[in-house]
From TrEMBL:
Superkingdom of this protein's organism: Bacteria
High-level lineage: Bacteria, Pseudomonadati, Pseudomonadota, Alphaproteobacteria, Sphingomonadales
Protein name: DNA polymerase III subunit gamma/tau
Functional description taken from the UniProt entry: DNA polymerase III is a complex, multichain enzyme responsible for most of the replicative synthesis in bacteria. This DNA polymerase also exhibits 3' to 5' exonuclease activity.
Region (Disordered): 1-59
Naturally occurring in which organism (per UniProt): Pelagerythrobacter aerophilus
Gene: dnaX
Length: 592
C-alpha cells in the first residue's frame, strides 16, 4: 500500500535499545529468587552501543552477616561434627534415609543443614558425572540453583504459614512425579511442628513409604510438639549449641573477612550473649560493627559492646564482689549506684555476680587457670578461688540465686538488688553451719553448758537464765492447775527443758497420755506455747524421787552419828521414828 510505511527498514521509533536493556524472564526469576534467598544474579551485560554509562543504581544491597556467611558447605558448618560424620558415612555406604529431622535451638543451622543435604544429594560435580557426596562442588548447576533457591526439584515450605491438610495434599500429589532435572526431589519443611494434627496424619503414609526419588527434610525448634508417629519415621539429628570459644573464633574470622578490627574481649562478650546461636551472635556482631565509632576506624571494643548490651563492666563487677566479701556495706551501695547510673539493669548485675561466683567455683574444683578474657581478671578469680572455701562459694551462690529471683519479681528492681546484696554481705559474717555444729559438740563433750536460747535473750543483752523445774511446777500450781503440778512432781523425769520445749521420760508403769494436760498447764502458767514430748532417753529423777533420795541421804547421815550408833548398840530392836509421827501418836492417845 502506498500510504503504508516502509517496513523493510527500521522503524523511526524502533531504536533497538529496548531489546538490549530489558532483562529476560529467566533473569527476572533469578533476581526474585536472589532477593528471597541470597546471592544476586550477575548483572546483564552492558550494551556495546550504549551512548553513555548510566550511574550505578542497581548495586547489590547490603546483606546482614547472618545471611552473608550462611554456610555453603559442610566444612563451614561449625560445631556439628557428629552429624556431618553420620551423613558422610551414610552417603559413602549408600544408606540414606528417606526423611531427616533437624532439631535444636534457633540459629544453630537447621535450615542451612537441610539445604546442604539437598546439595549433597543432587550434586553432579564440575564434570556432570559425580554422585552424592558430603563435599558438594558448589559449581555445578544443581548446587548453584539450590544455593540460589531456584531449583525446581528442591521445594522449601514454611509450615508456619502452610499448616493445613490442603498444603500437605499438594505434597502428596506431587511426590508421585519424578524429579525434573535432579537426582532426588527434596521437600524442606521448616518449623514442621506448626503443622496441624490432621496435616500430620495426612502425611504419615507418604512419609513412611515415599517413592525412591523423594527425600523429606524437616527442621524444628520444638521437637516435643511433633507426634511420635512422625518421629519414628525420620532419622533425627539434634544440632548442638555452639560453644562460646568456637563462636568467638568464628566471629574473629568474620571480622577478618569484613576488614573490621575487634578486641578479643568484645568478641567473647558477643559469643557469650549469643547463647550458642550463630545467627544471634552474627546479628549482635552486625550491630556492634554499626555501633562502632568511626573516629577509631570502626574498631569493635569491649567497652562498646558492654555499653550496647547493657552489661556490667567486668572490673566493676569484681569490685562489687570484693565489697561483699570484705563486708563494706557503704562501698557496696556506692558500687551498685554507679552501675545503675551507667545503665546496667539490676537483673544483669545479679547475673554478672552469679557468673563470677560460678567461674571461681569451677576454677577451684578444676585447679587450673580461671576462664577469663583478660590476665587481670584471671588473676583476681584465681586469688578468690584460693582464699574462699567451697562452703562459702556454695552459700554465696544460693544467696545470689535467691536475690536474682527476688529482683526479677520485685516492683522496684534496684531496691530489691540493694537489699539482696546487703543480705549476702551480712551473711558472710555468720559462722559456717558445719563448724558451728562441731564447736557445739566440743563444748558439750568438755562439759560446758550451752545457753538454751542461743546465747542471747530477747533483748539481745545478757544470756538467758536456765529454767528451774521446781519453780516451774510451783508456777503451774499457782496458776490453779494442781493436778498437772502433782503429775509434774511425781512422774516427770526431765530430759531437756528450755522455754517453750519440754522433753521428758517416765517410769514404765505410767502409761496414760499426759502430754496435752501438761501442754495446757504450761501454756496457761507461762503465756507461751509449749512443745511437750515424751522420749525414751533417761532423764533426771522426778521431784518426788529427788525428795525421797534427799530424805534417805539425811537418814543415813543421822544413822552414822556416834550417839545413834551407841543407842542402836544398847537397844538392837529400836527403830527410828519421825518427830511428826510421835506428835500424831500422842494426839491419838489423848483422844481415846
Amino acid at each position: 500500500m502506498g500510504d503504508s510505511p516502509d517496513t523493510s527498514g527500521d522503524l523511526p521509533w524502533d531504536t533497538g535499545e529496548e531489546d538490549q536493556t530489558e532483562p529476560s524472564a529467566a533473569e527476572l526469576e533469578a533476581a526474585g529468587q536472589s532477593a528471597m534467598f541470597g546471592d544476586a544474579p550477575p548483572p546483564p551485560p552492558e550494551p556495546a552501543s550504549a551512548p553513555a554509562a548510566k550511574p550505578e543504581t542497581s548495586a547489590q544491597p547490603y546483606r546482614v552477616l547472618a545471611r552473608k556467611y550462611r554456610p555453603q558447605t559442610f566444612s563451614q558448618l561449625i560445631g556439628q561434627e557428629p552429624m556431618v560424620r553420620t551423613l558422610a558415612n551414610a552417603i559413602a555406604r549408600d544408606r540414606l534415609a528417606h526423611a531427616f529431622l533437624m532439631t535444636g535451638v534457633r540459629g544453630v543451622g537447621k535450615t542451612s543443614t537441610a539445604r546442604l543435604i539437598a546439595k549433597a544429594l543432587n550434586c553432579v560435580g564440575p564434570d556432570g558425572e559425580g554422585g552424592p557426596t558430603i563435599d558438594p562442588c558448589g559449581v555445578c548447576e544443581p548446587c548453584k540453583a539450590i544455593a540460589e533457591g531456584r531449583h525446581i526439584d528442591v521445594i522449601e515450605m514454611d509450615a508456619a504459614s502452610h499448616t493445613g491438610v490442603d498444603d500437605v495434599r499438594e505434597i502428596i500429589e506431587a511426590v508421585r512425579y519424578a524429579a525434573v532435572s535432579a537426582r532426588y526431589k527434596i521437600y524442606i519443611i521448616d518449623e514442621v511442628h506448626m503443622l496441624s494434627r490432621n496435616a500430620f496424619n495426612a502425611l504419615l503414609k507418604t512419609l513412611e513409604e515415599p517413592p525412591a526419588h523423594v527425600k523429606f527434610l524437616f527442621a524444628t525448634t520444638e521437637v516435643d510438639k511433633l507426634p511420635v508417629t512422625v518421629l519414628s519415621r525420620t532419622q533425627r539429628f539434634d544440632l548442638r549449641r555452639i560453644p562460646t570459644e568456637l563462636l568467638q573464633a568464628h566471629f574473629a574470622w568474620v571480622c577478618e573477612e569484613e576488614g573490621v578490627a575487634a578486641e578479643p574481649e568484645a568478641l567473647h562478650m558477643i559469643a557469650a550473649a549469643a547463647e550458642g546461636s550463630v545467627r544471634d551472635g552474627l546479628s549482635i556482631l552486625d550491630q556492634a560493627i554499626a555501633h562502632a565509632d568511626m573516629g577509631e576506624e570502626g574498631k569493635v571494643t569491649a567497652a562498646l559492646v558492654r555499653d550496647m548490651l547493657g552489661l556490667a563492666d567486668k572490673s566493676a563487677q569484681r569490685r562489687l564482689l570484693g565489697t561483699i566479701l570484705e563486708g563494706d556495706a557503704k562501698g557496696l551501695l556506692a558500687a551498685v549506684a554507679d552501675q545503675y547510673a551507667l545503665g546496667v539493669e539490676p537483673l544483669a548485675l545479679m547475673r554478672g555476680l552469679m557468673d563470677l561466683v560460678h567461674r571461681i567455683t569451677v576454677a577451684q574444683i578444676g585447679g587450673g587457670e580461671p576462664e577469663a578474657p583478660s590476665a587481670e581478671e584471671r588473676a583476681a578469680l584465681a586469688e578468690w578461688a584460693g582464699r574462699l572455701s567451697a562452703g562459702q562459694l556454695h552459700r554465696l551462690w544460693q544467696l545470689l540465686l535467691k536475690g536474682h529471683e527476688e529482683v526479677r519479681q520485685a516492683p522496684d528492681p534496684l531496691v530489691s538488688a540493694q537489699m539482696a546484696l546487703l543480705r549476702v554481705l551480712h551473711a558472710a559474717d555468720l559462722p559456717d553451719p558445719g563448724k558451728l555444729a562441731k564447736k557445739l559438740d566440743e563444748m558439750a563433750a568438755n562439759g560446758i553448758a550451752v545457753p538454751a536460747g542461743g546465747g542471747q535473750g530477747a533483748g539481745g543483752g545478757a544470756p538467758a537464765a536456765a529454767l528451774d523445774w521446781r519453780q516451774l511446777v510451783d508456777q503451774v500450781r499457782a496458776a490453779g492447775h494442781h493436778h498437772a503440778a502433782s503429775i509434774m512432781e511425781l512422774q516427770i523425769r526431765v530430759v531437756a527443758l528450755e522455754m517453750g520445749t519440754l522433753r521428758y521420760a517416765r517410769a514404765a508403769h505410767f502409761r496414760d497420755d499426759i502430754a496435752p494436760q501438761l501442754r495446757d498447764a504450761l501454756t496457761a502458767a507461762t503465756g507461751q506455747r509449749w512443745i511437750v514430748e515424751q522420749c525414751e532417753e533417761q532423764g533426771a529423777p522426778s521431784l518426788v524421787e529427788q525428795d525421797e533420795a534427799a530424805k534417805a541421804a539425811e537418814q543415813a547421815k543421822v544413822r552414822a552419828h556416834p550417839l545413834v550408833e551407841a543407842a542402836y548398840a544398847a537397844f538392837p530392836e529400836a527403830e527410828p521414828v519421825e518427830e511428826a509421827e510421835i506428835h500424831s501418836s500422842g494426839r491419838a492417845a489423848w483422844g481415846r
